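Hi D.,

Good news: the full-assembly prediction came through. Inputs first.
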Amino acid sequence: MGPHATMQTVCRASIQCTSAILVALFAALSSAIPVFAEADPLASWIDGTAKRAIVDFVATVTTEGSPDFVPPGERIATFDNDGTLWSEQPMYVQLAFALDRVKVMAPNHPEWKDTEPFKSVLSDDIKGIAATGQKGVAEIVAATHAGMSAAQFERIVTDWIATAKNPETGKLDRAMIFQPMLELIAYLKANGFDVFIVSGGGVEFMRPWTEATYGIPAENVIGSSIKMKYRSNASDPSIIRLPEVEFVDDGAGKPVGIQKFIGKRPIAAFGNSDGDFEMLEWTTTGPGRRLGMIVHHDDPRREFAYDRKSEFGRLDKALDAAPQRGWSVISMKDDWRVIFPNSEP
Amino acid sequence: MGPHATMQTVCRASIQCTSAILVALFAALSSAIPVFAEADPLASWIDGTAKRAIVDFVATVTTEGSPDFVPPGERIATFDNDGTLWSEQPMYVQLAFALDRVKVMAPNHPEWKDTEPFKSVLSDDIKGIAATGQKGVAEIVAATHAGMSAAQFERIVTDWIATAKNPETGKLDRAMIFQPMLELIAYLKANGFDVFIVSGGGVEFMRPWTEATYGIPAENVIGSSIKMKYRSNASDPSIIRLPEVEFVDDGAGKPVGIQKFIGKRPIAAFGNSDGDFEMLEWTTTGPGRRLGMIVHHDDPRREFAYDRKSEFGRLDKALDAAPQRGWSVISMKDDWRVIFPNSEP
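Then the structure:
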């Protein structure tokens, strides 16, 4: 029975007719929905245990009346960033940013030529930088991430990320994001999830580009931070970034960051290193159905292959714990049809 | 021309018919819309300069093509809580909570009978508590707000707020919320704003009830905080609240809290005391059209009357600054038809 026939049969009075139109419209729309639904929202995921774990989990927590149903406001999903949403090799993008900034700022700091850690940075001596230890890194962060307003820092990051390239592949950093994870974020959001980034990286290094890159707005980004201070002014106040670490959002800091910023316990968490262990533990030990997943970098042809021995993003303890904790391991090689947007399989 | 006639005239082929139904439906719906729009979303606001300032502002920033148009993701509005969304007299609700907790916990702390500040709390000696100064208050906060898990604290607050009453009026604290502000929050949300609470109060004291009370979810609540620590455990990890202040979200702390948690500058801010001065300044000095408003407690008959001389929520500097800063002052007496939900005008 077509909508035309429905109209002629049912429309007797004007109000009845309006509801008949409504019914007919919904009938027409719902017969159309399967056509759209057939386009797989996780098309870059190969059918396998990882993809099935995601689809089953989402179906279970979104089915009203199911004992594991979770109302929309409680559907919190958290993603690590470096190595989980984009590549972190051969070095964290934020570290590359800091080193670039030292070079840009060097003309105003002639003393850096003879002072560590800057001397090593200026001569591209990565081992020399590493030898300066945590103190050296803190000095680099202080010099490059503090001493300006939050608005100025946002501008610096925005300009830098527009052209920043991976030193090994020569591709734009913003192009080395993981297509399957973009689909996963969109799929979760379409199913009523609130999606957050929970990263060891600097929160104000990420916020300027996460919305355009991942569809995750600034207020849904949690990260490490330095202290800030408000400078009052009747016409042009500012927020000044201070050279002092405030919060390290890594390891046991991640559940704390989640509690501080969201105040709700996630039901799904995604990471790729031991720095995500506690976030996965906190998420998956909660009551009801939970999902914990680890991205395993095992595809040297299309991306990088590393885990236990890597200096950055070491995956060791979490990989061992995965089977007994019920965390799914995502093989980039076997579970992902493509890795980067618009790339070949 | 009724929708029935439209159908008969236009429906020749099935696809054409479907679009005709769609057109008819939208026509029917849009003719219905003015009926709903006539219900004033700000019904508790008396028509006057304050209400006009709100409506004009919202119309301006939501009109596409207008030079002051602000896209939805940037429409950030921040509200102070105590004295702005609910009553703060004769004492902050959170202070009443802390004092109640001391009494509940006292049987396990026999030494409190002879130790300040607890001795004064147990004998309802407010002046005695005040005499112990900031150190005394810090001890009360440490004893009542720390030493348990975040989940346990949430349960304590939830149970307490369910029956907590204002000591002067005998009404439930949760009933002493401002109806015009509830309407304002809903109005802003309906117009694509993201609404946040930015309060000097403890963030984890507010989060358990803000969604049910104001329609503002936990993740949109910014407040003062104490430090927390993650306690790892394979089956039952927890987040422990430590007796150490981490962040004071008041005065110059408010713009910093906004930057930390939202990472975006508000375009509208609402407060009622000098503790909101910097938030109002930070909000209203940004580029484009901005809105800053101050709730003035000038209605002793229906609520309380206080400003410059009050011990809590002092409004002095901000009241003087309002005219030159372009901040609107909301008179509770003259601008609000009713103050509390379901109350008489």
